[in-house]
């Protein structure tokens, strides 16, 4: 199995609901460093999993929908805790759609979000 | 599949038995940077794999049992080479116990130990 | 000249005033990874610049005053853009006070804040 | 499952064929930071996946065959785009041969090549 | 003294002249991860050393002049070893010009180029 | 001012004397990732601060004198706390001697030792 990963980043504000979150129930924010990994059993005709330029642009387009936003105000996320894990899945789902024809042949997409140097989460999506 | 990773670190002394270890047969030491990854098929009611605060505290508790120790003197490790691989499994096993009820719903735990910037090991435990 | 650096991190929300900030004028947030460096011409009687435990605790205490906060609501920062550079100086100033007697003998403190994997700022304070 | 990873690096020139590569069709180059991961279901008699010294030396030997080369001139790669993905597989295949008897008991080898701080690829080889 | 750093990267081919370079006399290549640091004694009216957007764009513009190139064919570098150190100075000099009016008030620019995970160089330019 | 940095690493055991060290008074150990920086006002005839191969070899030679050792048993360090800061200076001093003729023209050497991902020290030596 082959994989290709591209990295990008976005900054958001949000708050969490639930006592488990302690001080993170207050409005705060995060820089998320995103690592989007595309998996493919075999390489395509150009010897690639997916073109890095295409992968980077699609990832950028997805992140642009949420960056510099207060996620508490994003309608699509209403009633949800926008946890790091939740955002991983949201990005993976979007990538699988926004890749368009480039998704053909992919076995899966994994999105990893680093919320700091000591904590990160991921979501592995099978295609 | 979702995952959540927290990072911590500990410093120990130890020595190895066996010619394969060369100069590492002498008493020396290491800083181990630990990355403990918890996997879960679905998110819990709070939208999490495991609460980061809980995960960090349990990991800290496990590491506190060995840090600033000479592992050659730890009774539990008698007759064992405390290789990086061995320590990965020991930490993963401990985490699965010390998590208590928080282990419910987890699919697995992976512990990765970086012994330097150019070498690391991991152990993947299924639950 | 000797130096000793400790690293910590905090998460905040804030917004900026001024057209130069573009989309960052909206309420957003950041994870700041903080590297606080203490400089000393000579080592103290224990062979240290400053005890790592003390340095880490003082840094933690300073960061706890702002973490999980919306900096737009912090009275002390009213009328200020809480840019990464500005926060570097605020932390350095606080550290120099909160170190108490441990500040004796230090030549300076530098605070570096990483706002992402591709952008960071610092402030170097002479003592 | 256990794993052991060692890191090394090599620098090469090459060019790509195909419009998808845009400016990378021109002769350019890359530093590849290589992370070779060896997997084993159980530890060997010394408590290891593979000896780090052996793993590092074998990886070095493999990389020495291509480093400081223009890959466009390497006969073995004629007619191939030496993409990061392609090189991952080439290194993994070589490692599995050059490990010699040390390959016994391994479940697999994964080679990850970082071509920059924001892009990397991998190939996972089952044994 | 304040500083602001932005990171980018570029890939090039080149060769070196001189026995000291050993195998690097052959045509090879490198990924250079660039960290451009701008220093200023005081913050500007917006509370910044330099706007991150401006800094990033100017750096990108400078790097675009050499990326995906064989530096042996760049007229401006004829007769020069394009060592990492040499490229640091070339980028710093270009940045100081291409910043245009944004250079006003800056005390200096430092350019650091990482040629791998284990080697890097820098050039510090006073303004 | 130009600089050139090479990175290496070594593993040791040691203990500290003094209540300030808390649990680190027990025999423990560390992996030290070393970054040795050489500074020069102007480049030499080859366009270098110092040849990377030479710098790496000299650093390796210095580190080999202490690696896989219990520093408490090293005669040269008797009666000293081998703190990270202390080791930085020891390495810098050794490098300045062991560089031999390559030290000519250097303005200084800085040695930085990372004892973990969250703590490091340095010593800056003027030449």
Total number of beta strands of chain A: 5
Largest interface comes to: A-C, 24 and 24 residues
* Alpha-carbon distance between the two ends of chain A: 14 Å
How would a crystallographer describe the biggest sheet of chain A?
5 strands, mixed
Strand order of the largest sheet of chain A: 3-1-2-4-5
- Strand percent estimate of chain A: 35-45%
- Please mark out the parts of chain A with pLDDT under 50 across 5 or more consecutive residues, or reply none: none
Helix content of chain A: 10-25%
Mean pLDDT of chain A: 97
SS class of chain A: alpha+beta
**Outline of chain A, from the CA principal axes?**
elongated
- What is the oligomer described by this structure? homohexamer
Rg of Cα set of chain A: 15 Å
Order of helices and strands of chain A: EEHEHEE
